[in-house]
Amino acid sequence: MTRFIKFITTFLAALFMLTVASTAHANMINVIEFYGENEGVQDSFIFEESGVELTVTAWTSNVNSMQEQLSPWSQVSGFDEETKIGVYKGGSGLGVVSNDIDGEDLDGGSSDKINDLDEGLLFSFSENVNFLGFAAGDLSVNDDLNLAIVDFISPTSIEITDIFIDVYSDYEEDIFDVFPGIFGKSFMVWVDGNDDDVRILDTAFIKVPEPTSALIFTLALFIFLFNRRFSY
Fold first, then answer.
1. 108, 85, 186, 36: CA torsion to nearest 10
2. Higher per-residue pLDDT: 225 or 195
3. Cis ω on the peptide bond leading into residue 72 (within 30° of 0)?
4. Rounded to 5 degrees, what angle do the CA atoms 100, 101, 106 make?
């Protein structure tokens, strides 16, 4: 019986240490910075932090002042005439180039102009995360930003659920957070005002703990202790 109690004590201690380590790692805030080196326009950009991969793509829609969606979200990639379109990664952050006359910022459009669409950056994580928000730069008094959770209906069709709409700042750079965070894999940062013209500087997230690894460890250790207990 004494040997069995010792095994159980060892088991509980190991499980406690694993839980503490997993929780500490999961609660770390990870920040992915988008500014720095100018890499031009690509269909997508891929970033990696703490084993989590983030893919950023460019999308457009047409939303009027009543927040009515007049056209579906469509991914921006390839070429328009001879102009490369997609995600723009410049020294001051991410933007979108959606046609051959569009600038390199993330900018909104006019709902009555078919070629002047609202632009968004889709953040797709390789696993579920607790999304904390993002920082934006090149802000002016007329700029506001939107954030939505994204669900894929098909690889080319999405639905969005707005978290906040038309949040603005009086500062040139500011953090747009969603304390204490929202859980998911895909999020859209977008603008819908004709005057909106910004860059996205970074994003922050927390890894969601993976219960599978702890469960496998616990089961394996229990089997080991069980076999040791009855082998004597």
1. -90
2. 195
3. no
4. 100
Burial level of 42, CB count in 10 A (0-12/13-18/19+)?
Answer: middle
Backbone angles phi, psi at 50, to 5 degrees: 55, 40
- Name the phi and psi angles at 213, rounded to 5: -65, -40
Residue that the structure tokens 């819908």 belong to: 192
**Domains in the chain, start-ordered, CATH in brackets?**
28-210 (2.60.120)
Burial class (CB within 10 angstroms; exposed 0-12, middle 13-18, buried 19+) of 200: buried
Q: What is the dihedral of CA 51, 40, 134, 101, to 10 degrees?
A: -140
The three-state secondary structure class of 75 is: strand
| Helix (H) or strand (E) segment spanning residue 48 | strand 44-49
Burial 108-131 (b: 16+ CB within 10 A, else e): bbebeeeebbbbbbbbbbeeebbb
pTM score > 0.90 for this model?
Answer: no
159-210 confidence digits (pLDDT tens)? 999 999 999 999 999 999 999 999 999 999 999 998 899 999 999 999 998 6
